[in-house]
Amino acid sequence: MELHAVRYDDRTFDEPSVDGINxxxxxxxxCTITRPRGKPGRVNDIAFIDTDLSGPExxxxxxxxxxxxxxxxxxxxxxxxxxxxxxxxxxxxxxITGELCNVGFGEHYRYDQLDGVDLSGCKLExxxxxxxPMERVKLxxxxxxxxxxxxxxxxxxxxxxxxxAMDGPDQxxxxxxxxxxxxxxxxxxxxxxxxxxxxxxxxxxxxERRGARYVHELAFTDKPEWFMDVIHSxxxxxxxxxxxxxxxx
Length: 249
Hints:
This is Pentapeptide repeat-containing protein. The protein is an alpha/beta fold.
């Protein structure tokens, strides 16, 4: 079975079987979907608008989604391609509980990504929020510890520490520093694109609109201990000890 260019409005689906069904450009608006079961076939461009989805027995791939607005996704597992690859879905004014794995969210030049989104009931594993002011997003208390409130005030200092580490003789330090370098370049690039800013010399080009940043490179769960030790040491060199408080405990 194949569903293509289909829209469902004000429908209730209780334990629907999606086994083997291909979904392409399907929109659910003002629907309730409870415990969908089976394993879907090919899936792309799924939109949830003012919809309540709960307890799917299969994991979602992040690239299945095109839009999630005004919706609640309960007890879902959403898997992406990696924290460095922002998904193309627009996610706004919604609540997600369950688990996000290897997912990158990126600010979009046409709209404010993740505005009014509650992820406080979601476990985050290798999740990034690139160019997104985290004032828009509600996180768990544990993840809030990784948020730097005024990122623009410290970003260039972090960048300088990273550049110095990349030029050093220790290959392990260089390798870990490159990871942070890539994260900073991606974040700042999306911010500048959003606001049409030309990158100035000797600066990442942030201003006060950047707001708070979730420092995802401090929260990797799939990196070796030595790698994380190096990244922690790089951040300890920045600021007066208040940048990310748990690093100094």
